Amino acid sequence: MHPNIQNKLKIKPAHIVSIIVFLLISMSTLTAKVYATDAAWPSKTTYKYANVDGKKIFYREAGTQHEQTIVLLHGYPSSSHSCRELIPLLSGRFHIIAPDYLGSGYSARPNPETQKYTFELLAQYVEGLLTTLKIKRYSLYIQDFGAPVGFRMLLNNPNRLDALIVQNGNAYLEGLTVARQAFFKAANEDKTQAQRDKIYSFTSNKAIINKQYLRDVQSYPEVMSPDSWTHDLHFLQTKSDRVIQVQLLQDYYNNLLDYPKWQAYLRKYQPPTLIVWGKNDPAFIAAGAKAYLKDVPNAELHLLDSGHFSVEEKPVEIAKYIVDFMNKLTQ
């Protein structure tokens, strides 16, 4: 303090020291409070089952102390296991539910000879799980198969959504190459044994590892955990397991026919939408991400330097985008 000011105010040196100490303590206390408020320590993920219409549905849950719920919907050929790195990154701030679809992961898998698997069936069981857990509102994270499951849930209950988070989840023909569209059409309409055998081959060990998980990361395969395909292949050991996925691939073309309904939902309700899309995905291409902007022009779009399984490649980056996006909704 300047001597003249000190003399005018008649402040003794001992008082100056006390003031400085007080300010330092106040600043450190404030800083501690800010860090405490901003801290987002992950909560322990728990592994549970719920009885939904007489079937056991497995789900991962974390962050139960938070009000905002995010439901993570996985893709093919995976389960909630694909979100194992994303869940703890979000659970410090949000309540997370990540189910395994009926017929996938640890959930029940009724015999496909007596139970036909469709995306409508999967959506009914996820919706049933949320009803069982008394979750009335939620945000949806949709990836791959998660898009047709999620959009069916939204059409059935259009007012329960807080926000939509899209990660390589198609709702537009622009997001599918011509070859991919033809594949889904043939899978649905061609009932020959040769076509069924072709679809069945997509569920083989070689196809899951090389044409799914490692396809988009050939220059840096070390980013992809072998736990991913090891886990999935464990649940594709039997012919019945594989036929479940075959039936869903056969049903996938009906999603393309339903795209106009999903787009109409987006136009009508204008849900807050975050798009985090792996631009290196050669099957669900980046044009599908940009197409969302036609119907939800205020959507937040980020094209990531990753592939179809971006949640495996870049969970931290995706989590940061989700946290920032969700925080904006509460401001």
Automatic annotation (TrEMBL):
**Protein's UniProt keywords contain DNA damage:** no
Write the protein's name. Alpha/beta hydrolase
From the UniProt record, which GO molecular function terms apply?
Answer: epoxide hydrolase activity
Q: Which SUPFAM superfamilies match?
A: alpha/beta-Hydrolases (SSF53474)
The AB hydrolase-1 domain sits at 69-315
User: Which keywords does the record carry?
Assistant: Hydrolase
In terms of Pfam families, this protein maps to: Abhydrolase_1
What PANTHER family does the annotation carry?
A: BLR6576 PROTEIN (PTHR42977:SF1), HYDROLASE-RELATED (PTHR42977)
Q: Does the keyword section mention Hydrolase?
A: yes
What start and end residues bound the annotated signal peptide? Answer: none
What lineage, starting at the top, does this entry show? Bacteria, Pseudomonadati, Pseudomonadota, Gammaproteobacteria, Alteromonadales
Q: Where on the tree of life does the source sit, at the highest rank?
A: Bacteria
